[in-house]
Batch of 3 targets.
Target 1
Amino acid sequence: MKSDDEDMDLGVLFNLLRSLFKSIGNGIKTFFATSFNMLISFFIYLKRHIIKFIIAAVIGGILGAIVEYKIEEPLYSSSMTVQANYESIIQLYNDIEYCEGLISEKDYISLGDYFKIDSIDASSIKKIEVSPYTNDNQIILAYNDFISKLDSNVIENIDYEKFSQNIPKEEFLYHVINVESTNRALFEKLEKPIINSLADNPYYSKLLQTEISNLQSQENVLISSMIELDSLRQFYKEISLNESKKENAATTFYMGNTEEDKRDIIVFDKYIKANIDLVEIKSEINLKNEIVNVVSSFNKTGAEVKGLLRNSMVLGFFGGILLIFIYLLVIESNRFLISQERKLKGK
């Protein structure tokens, strides 16, 4: 009896599985059949209206070409890469955001005042933006610099992957300012106002003076230490020379020379370390001697901005196709609604 129940359960299970696979197979078959029918219907619809689409695309392309080459002024672009010290990068982003607001509001008088240019030149500026210069190496450097400022207990909670996805812009070393304008020769005039707006800030100027003063003090200390270490080396050499001239002091000479060698090596190592530190200090002074270091300036003349999405002729071509498609869709929808209305009245 128990065996019969088990056989019955297995039979029910197999029937369920067969039904399931049959349903899945029918669903896949229906999906492909529906997709194929829709594709065929689309091609039939396209064949029926192909002339309309071609005419609309040609007209749109012609109108776009007229705008592109006869009406619209060419757009040029140039960029400047900077390194901002003393956390002045915050002010730089605020200044660029301020300029973007003036452009969107078409306040070319205020924009001209900021850049020290006339309002006509200011009106030629169509876009200005700033963004960090990023690559894998820059992200690693930013991460190392960031965790170096933190307590050892906090570092454990800072994951590199999370950091790389939410990096504060202040942690990046370089930042790129990009400007787009219809005036190809304008870009060089924009560099100094951007830099001076930060350099003239009293807060950053005080930080610069304090930092450079501290670095110069360290530089002077290292130079004095190197002079003293060099004098000490000369002193040890004189002692070694005097010891070597002593008569009947072969053993003493050997021991003295060994001790002198050790002392000279220690002094020499300290001299080399001081020299390395001095080079680093000088490099840091050069790096931090300006509030903003210009890594690469704006070009004298901008490069023309190109691209399919910026080409009015291309946009007009596809715009014409889109418009005729919407028009035909409205017509077909209206016909369908009319037919449904007639059916309802017939009932």
Target 2
Amino acid sequence: MSQLCLFSIPKPLQGSTERLQRNAFESWRRLGATVEVVLLGDEHGVAEAAREYGFLHWPQLNRNSLGTPLINHAWTAVRQATTARQFLYANADILFDQNLLTAATILDDWPMNRYLAIGQRIETNLDSEIRDWSDERLRDWIQRQRIERQRASIVCKDYFLFPRHLYLDVPDFAVGRGNWDNWVVYDAHRSGVPVVDLTRQVVALHQPHDHLHSGGRRQAYVVGAEARENQRLAGGRHLLIGSHASHFLDEHGQVVRMGWRWLPRAIQDVPRFIELLRTLVR
């Protein structure tokens, strides 16, 4: 049994989206053999990419009437594909550094054994593929992004780390649309599961992209039929409770209760959140 399985539902590998996703895949491959990676879905190029990078591939996913893959089937299918103790769902354009493994190991050993881990992403621009980069060059570049670039708003959630026995019953959310990610955090809070912020430890780099496949950002996240259906299934938007952690992983590798720290963190996030809102009306 492996410790960690990283799984994702990629978009079709074509155009600029192919480069973004290949960069993410390459960073996942370099996490090492102890991490199983599963690519789900039968979009163009996904099966070939899985073979090329040495990942597992699960082609069949249930879809809604508009053809969008459903989160619940993906999160169920991955349990059939691997026996890993931990699962990390990640959007297919996110690059991780090796600190992800450290954080996952700390939580795997945590006596609580019930947790949901999330973290803020860093927006970065990468116009080339990293496949031919040395490990040292990639590591140095990631560290520069961590220092030089700003984190995105805490409402932007691009990955979820959790133990195998959690999230066995997830609604029929459409992937890549609004509101389902807030529900994941909200459900942890209401179930008494600690929500651990990994931002201090884990670097998660997001490569900006358009949302033409879903009719635009506002359509995908707010006003579109699939976003509204996700909101209905979630029982609301849960924007506030769905964006805050109850614990955090500190620089010394200790899981610490958030306590009063959530307030200055929320205040610091206001400018980022306002900028995010501006992108939804452009």
Target 3
Amino acid sequence: MTDTPTGQIVRPATPTPQGRDGPSREALVFERIEAFRRRKPRLPDEFVTLAHGAGGKSSAALLDAVFMPAFWNDTLAARTDAATIELPSGERLAFTTDSYVVNPVRFPGGSVGDLAVNGTVNDLAMMGADPLGLSAAFVLEEGFPIESLRGIVADMAAAAAAAGVDIVTGDTKVVDHGAADGIYITTAGVGTIPAGRRLDTRSVQPGDAVIVSGTLADHGIAVMLARGDLALEADIDSDTASLHGLVGLLLDEVPDTRWMRDATRGGLGTVANELAQTTDLTVVLREAELPVRPAVAGACELLGIDPLYVANEGKFVAVVPADRADLAVETLRTHPLGRDAAHIGEIRSEPPGIVVLVTAFGGTRIIDMLVGDPLPRIC
């Protein structure tokens, strides 16, 4: 298989072998890659950069050009926070995994430990799943203080207990001094999805309401300030928290909720773009309704960062029927993690595939997907 100058795939001269039951695995992989390459642009970068981990355009390009063609399957193609797996019994499981490389490992309001647990529980919750168990794998750098490790593990245990889930398996590796940055944690989780519950972009319709469960950009700014590289001081804590209980409350009161996503890397702006592109609909956000704490807004302004693109670790975005928006917000506000919930926008049919922000002055501007990485290593 070779590439022409235009990037078009040319079939090998040698015919692809056929098995007794149809095309060989090699042929199926080739067809899968060819179909994907026809639909997605190639990755222009020659080397991995920090921007590829930011959750924006560069991350999407890396995913589309490297991982998706190799691993393509219908489950992966859904691009959800967690995969849904149909069991022979008819039950549905949600399964997710994530790695945490935040720097520093401890910051106002949390640490890499509770972040690792909460992030995985939240990915399950976004599929409407009840968590069953988590795994935890550690990569430790030689010389990392045992006392620091004890503290991080204690944070994980406390977060798991708060979420009502156990860490049931794991692994530990140690690398040479200088080969890592102290500690990296990978967690995976599995949960069950109650019968009849489906949260899917295919359910989203024009006229639906967009809500957010609380204030934006708290986590990213808290971590950025904790690094001490900037001459800024502000009383800002990370919002890291398990959203399982809050999500359950919403789904009990508004069972026809269409879709949910926690706005982590790339923030609300990137999540809204992923929704718009997947549904080929328009996401309209109202700037005046976006909940941002004054201290966070001030820090973002000084840093020249739009809070729409800053990561959250304890907030989610949901789409609900328009006539259920008030109930959804009122329900979320009864929970401590949802007291700042807000109705921030709506879904429209035109123009398709974009995010529009209605500014506080009544104008409009396009919100594109995050470009670059203004806040690296925040989760």
